[in-house]
TrEMBL record:
<feature type="domain" description="CBS">
    <location>
        <begin position="7"/>
        <end position="64"/>
    </location>
</feature>
<dbReference type="InterPro" id="IPR051257">
    <property type="entry name" value="Diverse_CBS-Domain"/>
</dbReference>
<feature type="domain" description="CBS">
    <location>
        <begin position="73"/>
        <end position="131"/>
    </location>
</feature>
<dbReference type="InterPro" id="IPR046342">
    <property type="entry name" value="CBS_dom_sf"/>
</dbReference>
<dbReference type="Pfam" id="PF00571">
    <property type="entry name" value="CBS"/>
</dbReference>
<dbReference type="InterPro" id="IPR000644">
    <property type="entry name" value="CBS_dom"/>
</dbReference>
<keyword id="KW-0129">CBS domain</keyword>
<protein>
    <submittedName>
        <fullName>CBS domain-containing protein</fullName>
    </submittedName>
</protein>
Length: 139
């Protein structure tokens, strides 16, 4: 099975110069914990998570209304091509201990995102167990 079969297509993205408060608002509107960060709306340059905002900005005394995404995002982002297998996706998630992976097309433009929950919704029992165990392990 390929990631394009389970990915969420056309995820909402933000630019590196957007404020963290804008990224947080997107997370709220779309009920997600990660927003891909793109240049020109296409090329993934990083990701911003709810945890990035809290740990790297709020806990450090920063103001999300005046702090650009670029200063707190995780970069570079781990991505996969839309023709990657679920096994490749599971290996990446487990190996890098990430819960979400932006998916890019043949031109390198973002076209989807796969979350750990997407893998868990499949019938691939061995993938689910491995990813869940490895991603939950502290760094």
């Amino acid at each position: 099975m390929k990631v394009q079969q389970i990915m969420t297509p056309r995820p909402r993205c933000c630019s590196p110069d957007a404020m963290l408060s804008e990224a947080a608002r997107l997370m709220l509107e779309t009920d997600v914990g990660e927003i891909p960060v793109t240049r020109d709306g296409l090329k993934v340059v990083g990701v911003i998570t709810d945890r990035d905002i809290v740990v790297r900005c709020v806990a450090a005394g920063g103001d999300p209304r005046n702090t650009p995404v670029e200063s707190c995002m995780t970069a570079p982002a781990w991505t996969l091509s839309d023709d990657a297998s679920l096994e490749e996706c599971a290996r990446l998630m487990a190996g890098q201990q990430v819960r979400r992976v932006p998916i890019v097309d043949a031109n390198g433009a973002i076209c989807g995102i796969v979350a750990q929950a997407d893998l868990e919704a499949t019938d691939e029992r061995s993938l689910k167990a491995d990813v869940a165990a490895r991603v939950a392990t502290p760094h």
